[in-house]
Amino acid sequence: MAESRRTPFAAPRAARGRSLRAPPFAALLFALIALAACASPRQGALVPVAAAPPGSARVAMLVATTRERTDAPGVLFTGERGEGVSYQDIVVSVPPQRDVGSVRWGAGDPTRDFSVLSETALAQKDFLRALARLTPRSGRVLVFIHGYNVGFETAVFHFAQLTHDMNGGFAPILFSWPSRGRLLDYVYDRESANFSRTDLADVLRAVVRNPGVKDVVVIAHSMGAWLATESLRQMALEDGRVPKKISNLILASPDLDLDVFRRQVQEMGPERPLITVFVSRNDKALRVSSLLAGGIARVGAIDLTDPDKIAELESARGVVVLDLTALRTSDRLNHSKFSTSPEVVRLLGDRLIAGRGLSGADGDLVTAADAIGGAVSRVALTPIVLFAGGGN
């Protein structure tokens, strides 16, 4: 592909945008039932416990959310859309005996469960003061955006697990958008992500303006990947570029249409963050998302073993795709390997703490794959160009 400059992953024009053949309704219904069986929404789990058990760790996180606030005990925020952005300071206790990548909560036993130690509502000015206090000397901040079908308590505890297992070294910020945490509310969740894109952009602007912040890494999961890329695109169009302090964008199992993603990243412009995409072709959740989207394949489930896809690989500045299909984790849906695989979690922590991200020179990519024990597909060591022209 040295001279052709044809658009990667491009089918003949007549076939562009054509959906995959729709599976029978029974297959969709079976997939939905399987997903519902794995869902375990638990409400009321954010009531603070009296004390943390001996040997437990603590994760102090800041939260910015577009959810509706509620007075219901232990809930804090619903899945409905709020007025503007609300801010919260939450401290989570991490139980002493657990495996990296595992998370359990809701049973009321802090010796075994992730539990809340304290939670405080904040005004924006207090949020920014708390950020200045939590930001380490390195100046690094991690902003996490969750995906579809995620209740607020689920987002809090999973982010606490990821933050703890990555071994700190940054100030953690959870951006939580209004997901109802119900399987059949896919369309509502998608529109809620759309509803939140300006607010996420405003939160990111406020974070990078903090003088103590030197480097911001954004990790977005599933449908949250659409929200993250759309907000960064909006910042580029409105401000002339994505802020330089936002160095890395990591998209885990992105629930994104490939054509939409290509356009979003193009419109971020040349001064965009380094972008790393984790994909897995056996992602069952994205299989359902594809069905709900009319059979359109999702970026997070691209098959890198397809010869036609491999033929489209070439060097590209700042975009890397790592294939996690071969990894085996406790996640039955293969949708959260970035947080349930101890190897990937440690890789994220080691490289983010070092300020290196996951994208970079070829040597760095080889190191990243070797750190996961060779389970990452070697074909993924070559960056995937998602855009024609190569310059952007």
How is this structure best described in words?
- α4 (186-195) packs parallel to α6, α5 crosses α6 (223-239) and α6 (223-239) runs parallel beside α7 (258-268).
- Helix content is 33%, strand content 19%.
- By secondary structure, the protein is α/β, with parallel strands linked by helices.
- The radius of gyration is 20 Å and the shape is globular.
- The chain has a single domain (42-381), classed as Alpha/Beta hydrolase fold, catalytic domain (Rossmann fold, 3-Layer(aba) Sandwich).
- It has helices at 25-38, 124-134, 152-165, 186-195, 197-209, 223-239, 258-268, 284-292, 307-310, 337-340, 342-353, 362-371; strands at 57-69, 77-94, 115-122, 140-145, 171-176, 215-221, 246-252, 274-279, 319-323.
- It has a nine-stranded mixed beta sheet.
- The protein has twelve helices and nine strands.
Question: What is this structure, in a nutshell?
Answer:
With 392 residues, this protein is an alpha/beta fold.
